[in-house]
Amino acid sequence: MSGVRGPARPPRTALLERLASLDWPRIEAELDERGHATTGGPVLSAAECAELVRGYEAQGAFRSRVVMARHGFGRGEYQYYAYPLPGPVAELRSGLYPRLAAIAGRWARALGAPGGYPPDHEAYLERCRRAGQSLPTPLLLKYGAGDYNCLHQDLYGELVFPLQVAFLLSAPRHDFTGGELVLTEQRPRMQSRVEVVALEQGEGAVFAVNQRPARGARGLYRVAMRHGVSRVRSGRRFTLGIIFHDAR
Predict the structure, then answer these.
(1) Is 124 helix (H, G, I), strand (E, B) or coil?
(2) 158 burial via Cβ count (<10 Å: 0-12, 13-18, 19+)
(3) Largest interatomic CA distance in the chain
(4) How many Å apart are CA 227 and CA 246, to the nearest integer?
(5) pTM of the model
(6) Strands 148-152 and 74-75
(7) For residue 210, is it within any domain?
(8) 5 part of a folded domain
(9) Which of 14, 73, 101, 201 would bridge 68 by S-S if both were Cys, CB 3.0 to 4.6 A apart?
């Protein structure tokens, strides 16, 4: 007698296959070494990037819009997506999370932080909801000539997932010039270190949201990181931000 089979798993999409094929050992090693890593090439196609950019004007797709100059955040604007997230955004968030949760859990143990991170993103979002954080945080950012984003950290409540990912949706040197992703690292009793991360269209950068463990001569210590965008010299620059904790 043949065995009873459970329900078939839905087929993996092309985007999820691309995420699975990334060089995760390299990404993990670079995150451990310097707190950031790139995907090593485009994850999103030019057509997928263009579709996300066109979605910036979609009615009802976003829960709020922020003009940065009004708050002293820089110049430019961004919008937070509303639930339900667009398909590619939801796939990136759920597909990236399990890999990053393993790294985040190891970082938490190294820093002596309590608890860990469940392997499933929905389980983590349920934890956020119990803490009063239920607003989606993935966002689409738009910059024009002269715009920039001040150094900051994306902290939206008590629960903070320690890694996030930014995908460049515009083509550098074609759609815009300038506008580099900038990361700073504040080390105890030392001057800050600055990194400029060059991305191609569709490529992602994974980086620490707030703090990460770093190894020194006397063992592990905490390093605080911030990120921003340098001034756009010409054209328009769009970025998709994938943040894994929700907001109050």
Answers:
(1) helix
(2) exposed
(3) 71
(4) 19
(5) 0.94
(6) antiparallel
(7) yes
(8) no
(9) 73
| Number of domains forming the structure of the chain | 1
Side chain identity at residue 25, one-letter code: P
2 is a domain residue: no
Report the DSSP beta bridge partners of residue 41.
none
Count of C-beta atoms within a 10 Å radius of residue 235: 18
- Is the bond preceding 84 in cis, omega lying within 30 degrees of 0? yes
Q: How many whole angstroms separate alpha carbon 78 and alpha carbon 34?
A: 27
Domain extent at residue 93: 22-243
**pLDDT digit string, tens, across residues 59-77:** 999 999 999 999 999 999 9
Element (H, E) at 64: strand 62-67
Residue 3 lies in a domain: no
Nearest-angstrom CA–CA distance, 212 and 103: 11
Tokens read off for 41: 């090439």
CATH code of residue 90: 2.60.120.620
From the DSSP assignment, how many helices (H) and strands (E) are in the chain? 6, 15
Residues 149-172: tens digit of each pLDDT: 999 999 999 999 999 999 999 999
